[in-house]
Amino acid sequence: MINGHDAIHAQLKQAEWPNANKMKNVNERYVEELYYRADELLNMGEIAEAKEVLHDVLLEDPLHALAHNALGWIYTHHLLNYDLAETHLKLSMKHGNGVVVAYSNYAYLLFHTSRYHVVRDFVDSSIVVPGVDEAYLLQLKALTYEVEGRYIKALRILKKAKRHAFAEDFVNRLNADVSRINLKMRTTSIFMW
């Protein structure tokens, strides 16, 4: 007998096929209700329950991009299973016509797992996707250079990120990044340009 998780993983494999959504009739209203229930559970901090409901969503619709994104976020921030997080986030981006939050979550996962060159390549290729959070992606790219001691490059990218930032609290975070890097430059005798 196949349990729910095995069925989901089988459907994830199926989701790689371009016509996978035609293989199963999807009750869109039911799927939406399940997804919104999972979102409510996440907002209440009920992570385990939300994860189960999201798996139910994927049993109904293996290509549901928002469910994949939410599971990717859960696996990144709570369950620390970065392989599953990456799988779900990639599926969200692949099938998510307009679900751009997956790009930010995937970039964060790459940064968090210290794949700095991959972060930079990903940001460069994703910055053109309509609706992505350019300021956030550029901030992560800048932080990859900061980690490597390439402070001038990091500051240039943070300046560009500021041009795309509109929320005052995020602009303040960017200013804090600039201040921190300037402090490092003053207190570090050797740094790369």
List the helices and strands and how they pair.
Blueprint: H1 4-15, H2 28-43, H3 47-60, H4 65-77, H5 82-95, H6 101-112, H7 116-126, H8 134-147, H9 151-163, H10 168-187
Short description:
The protein has 193 residues and is an all-alpha fold. The chain has helices spanning 4-15, 28-43, 47-60, 65-77, 82-95, 101-112, 116-126, 134-147, 151-163, 168-187.
Protein model, in words:
The chain is an all-alpha fold. Helices cover 72% and strands 0% of the residues. Helix 4 (65-77) packs antiparallel against helix 5 (82-95). The longest helix is centred in the C-terminal third of the chain and has 20 residues, at 168-187.
Structural class: mainly alpha
- What is the arithmetic mean of pLDDT? 89
Number of E-state strands: 0
Q: What's the total helix number?
A: 10
Helical coverage, percent range = over 70%
Report strand %: under 5%
Oligomer: single chain
Shape: elongated
Task: Output the helix-strand order.
Answer: HHHHHHHHHH
Largest sheet: none
Rg from Cα: 19 Å
Intertermini distance: 59 Å
Sequence stretches where pLDDT stays below 50 over 5 or more residues: 17-23
